[in-house]
Amino acid sequence: MLEEAGEVLENMLKASCLPLGFIVFLPAVLLLVAPPLPAADAAHEFTVYRMQQYDLQGQPYGTRNAVLNTEARTIDADVLSRRCVLVRLLDFSYERYQRALRQSAGAVVIILPRTMAAVPQDVIRQFMEIEPEMLAMETIVPVYFAVEDDALLSIYEQTQAASASQGSASAAEVLLHTATANGFQMVTSGVQSKAVSDWLITSVEGRLTGLGGEDLPTIVIVAHYDAFGVAPWLSHGADSNGSGISVLLELARLFSRLYTYKRTHAAYNLLFFASGGGKFNYQGTKRWLEDNLDHTDSSLLQDNVAFVLCLDTVGRGDSLHLHVSKPPREGTLQHAFLRELETVAAHQFPEVRFSMVHKKINLAEDMLAWEHERFAVRRLPAFTLSHLQSHRDGQRSSIMDVRSRVDSKTLTRNTRLIAEALTRVIYNLTEKGTPPDMPVFTEQMQIQQEQLDSVMDWLTTQPRAAQLVDKDGTFLSTLEHYLSRYLKEVKPHHVKADKRDPEFVFYDQLKQVMNAYRVKPAIFDLLLAVCIGAYLGMAYTAVQGQCHCRLFSDPHVPHTTTPRLEGGSGSSSNSGALWSRHCRSVSFNCGVSLYFPSMCQVPCWAYRCSCQAETLGPAVHWSKNKPPRVCVLRL
């Protein structure tokens, strides 16, 4: 077959059929000289992070789908049905998000900037307010987040240009642009999400035993380490609650040094608890209380708890609020701690605005407001210290809570304030006449900003969503090792959801690889088919009109109504129609005599032997490989 094709092309070139060669070879030349499409422009692979998907108290939250295979459009397009909607953070709003869902969009991909520090503060505040609303409703549409890069930005701009053309006033322009414009097919590599069974939420506790008898009062210091945001893999939780766990670790370091020496060894037990699952209704704290109060005969939580101090979001601002479920009574240690906080803030840190916020526990709500409410429900005196005045503040559950939002000087100042107030309570310094403006932690005992910064850097370099913190992972092992340096009896506590009636259910496929393939719209295939058909029609017309062998009969030879083949190979008789259809498949040998009717036109390229007239008679000889452009034979 290849040899036959070669002979055909060779015959065409030798025949010098210019229009035919032009039609046949011009498309091939254009394809060869056209610049190739770079591979990076034809397809791009990037990482995407799926929105939260979990069940809490039997209520589903977040997106319920993870599979994506649809064409891309920007949020400004008129038609979003069954399309992957691309939107940049600067253009995102809750109204636009709802519009995409109402139009049955196939998916939503929110493109985040490379660094959050470059995002205007009003955009950050707006998105922090939107995140809880996005999670409050269940949606079947896959929602992903992607970090912007050059290739993804180019895809967005091209898609935006294609979407903008849909609003053209001319229907012909819209049709033409639709047929010729490039599109992008967005495809995820993962499978449908499924529930993760037997996932463990881990908490870590450690203690410093006081000097004296067995019935010493216990002060509990608590901070949850996990972070929360609309996308688990983007939840770094710098302020909430990286700042809280940083202060807890620094307090463990400071008081371990004080408890090392007999002169400064206080008559209080200090119990430190880094809880897990804080963003999921404080599941780690709940199970820890159940284990210590219901399933244990003796524990520090059962004997004599002075108060529980919970630390949550203390890395920003010039305000500190002590959130309580019940105002402390005078004469109690919790009231003394409240007074010491006020005293230290007024005399040593006058720039800090300190206040107490009283909020009763609403047992009708599924979610508790603050972590101290878990202890208050079990009748343990507790409060939460935070620079936030309301538990509904969006800063507590946002992917915008990154390292740059924590001010190192503010975090160091708040750590000093808390440490000074605790020390004055534990060592009863006010009753001993110590001036309120005299700091305790000075010189070698001074709180080190570099220490806090290193802990904050370690906490914020990794996402700490509860679904991602593995009990055997490096984060928990490092946390346990750090506490073991300063505390005694450090041990983990695990929480696993009940199989029959789980309080929480996590799902996988939270991080995937998405591919953007450059594609043409479906109407382009129809247009291409029309063009190919027109091209083939032009080629056929050129062949029939330009390269035919015109065979004329000699008037001296009697005409026959049916052409005959005679020669050494025998003879045959066929109709003219049959001859014109099948002559290209006949292989002629030299010396064959032909008898034609008055006229017969046959394409030259149909023969394997070219025609050459040697005599003016009925005998016509054929010689190979010498095809004339037009064969005129007079018989």
TrEMBL record:
<dbReference type="GO" id="GO:0160063">
    <property type="term" value="P:multi-pass transmembrane protein insertion into ER membrane"/>
</dbReference>
<dbReference type="GO" id="GO:0043254">
    <property type="term" value="P:regulation of protein-containing complex assembly"/>
</dbReference>
<keyword id="KW-0732">Signal</keyword>
<comment type="similarity">
    <text>Belongs to the nicastrin family.</text>
</comment>
<dbReference type="GO" id="GO:0009966">
    <property type="term" value="P:regulation of signal transduction"/>
</dbReference>
<dbReference type="GO" id="GO:0050821">
    <property type="term" value="P:protein stabilization"/>
</dbReference>
<dbReference type="GO" id="GO:0061635">
    <property type="term" value="P:regulation of protein complex stability"/>
</dbReference>
<protein>
    <recommendedName>
        <fullName>BOS complex subunit NCLN</fullName>
    </recommendedName>
</protein>
<dbReference type="GO" id="GO:0043022">
    <property type="term" value="F:ribosome binding"/>
</dbReference>
<dbReference type="Pfam" id="PF04389">
    <property type="entry name" value="Peptidase_M28"/>
</dbReference>
<keyword id="KW-0472">Membrane</keyword>
<keyword id="KW-1133">Transmembrane helix</keyword>
<dbReference type="InterPro" id="IPR016574">
    <property type="entry name" value="Nicalin"/>
</dbReference>
<feature type="transmembrane region" description="Helical">
    <location>
        <begin position="12"/>
        <end position="34"/>
    </location>
</feature>
<keyword id="KW-0325">Glycoprotein</keyword>
<dbReference type="GO" id="GO:0160064">
    <property type="term" value="C:multi-pass translocon complex"/>
</dbReference>
<feature type="transmembrane region" description="Helical">
    <location>
        <begin position="522"/>
        <end position="543"/>
    </location>
</feature>
<keyword id="KW-0256">Endoplasmic reticulum</keyword>
<feature type="domain" description="Peptidase M28">
    <location>
        <begin position="217"/>
        <end position="382"/>
    </location>
</feature>
<dbReference type="InterPro" id="IPR007484">
    <property type="entry name" value="Peptidase_M28"/>
</dbReference>
<comment type="function">
    <text>Component of the multi-pass translocon (MPT) complex that mediates insertion of multi-pass membrane proteins into the lipid bilayer of membranes. The MPT complex takes over after the SEC61 complex: following membrane insertion of the first few transmembrane segments of proteins by the SEC61 complex, the MPT complex occludes the lateral gate of the SEC61 complex to promote insertion of subsequent transmembrane regions. May antagonize Nodal signaling and subsequent organization of axial structures during mesodermal patterning, via its interaction with NOMO.</text>
</comment>
<dbReference type="GO" id="GO:0005789">
    <property type="term" value="C:endoplasmic reticulum membrane"/>
</dbReference>
<keyword id="KW-0812">Transmembrane</keyword>
